[in-house]
Specification:
Strand content: 5-15%
Oligomer: single chain
Structural class: alpha+beta
Strand order of the largest sheet: 1-4-2-3
């Protein structure tokens, strides 16, 4: 153990912190107070994690739960584009750390899930599911429907949120099973997806014309 009377070595502090230790954990390893760790971290001007970064690190002690696949075959290239297209149209874009899509069509949810699992190589246990349905629906039936369609256990959904019926006729019939929300919480995956969408926004005119057609 290092003496409490000696300055804490900069390289050791930096290494411990970058390896994911909290300052409380570092204090125990260094046999000193947390205050002393904080003092020398500030003294050396070592960068500190934000709260969201600290939470992410604690939630993923073995490192990032995803790894973007870079060598793609033709079917994977198609899935890559399709996944980004789904998020471009259906994805939540305002939060910093939530990758989330909402849809009443199970196929859309399944395709985007495949994009996350195959292209982003996300660990399956990071996928979170939620159902929202109308208050005149039967939650048990709705949960069973989505579980069958997505081929997952019913307990993956937790408590179903019910809302007042909206619309009539065709709209109501199409939405009789409500919507499913697929979410992944990641302060690293979300920026990557948004960065890929920004690349699409920066398409030069000739490429854009080939995709969208000339007016």
């Amino acid at each position: 153990m290092l003496s409490k009377q000696l300055p804490l070595p900069k390289n050791y502090l930096d290494k411990l912190y970058k390896n994911g230790h909290s300052m409380t954990e570092m204090a125990k390893l260094l046999n000193c107070s947390v205050h002393k760790v904080v003092y020398w971290m500030d003294k050396y001007d070592l960068p500190r994690r934000t709260m969201s970064q600290a939470v992410y690190l604690k939630s993923n002690p073995e490192g990032d739960p995803f790894k973007i696949k870079t060598s793609l075959d033709k079917s994977e290239v198609f899935l890559f584009g399709l996944g980004l297209g789904i998020y471009w149209g259906e994805g939540e874009k305002t939060s910093k750390d939530k990758v989330r899509i909402t849809n009443s069509n199970p196929k859309i949810i399944k395709i985007f899930r495949k994009f996350l699992l195959d292209i982003c190589q996300l660990k399956r246990h990071k996928l979170l599911y939620q159902i929202i349905c109308f208050n005149d629906s039967k939650p048990i039936e709705v949960k069973k429907y989505w579980a069958n369609e997505l081929e997952i256990s019913e307990d993956k959904f937790g408590k179903i949120v019910q809302i007042p019926t909206q619309g009539k006729g065709t709209y109501k019939n199409k939405s009789s099973k409500g919507v499913c929300i697929l979410t992944v919480a990641s302060i690293k995956l979300k920026p990557w997806i948004m960065g890929e969408l920004e690349k699409l926004d920066r398409l030069d005119g000739s490429v854009e014309e080939r995709i969208l057609g000339k007016n």
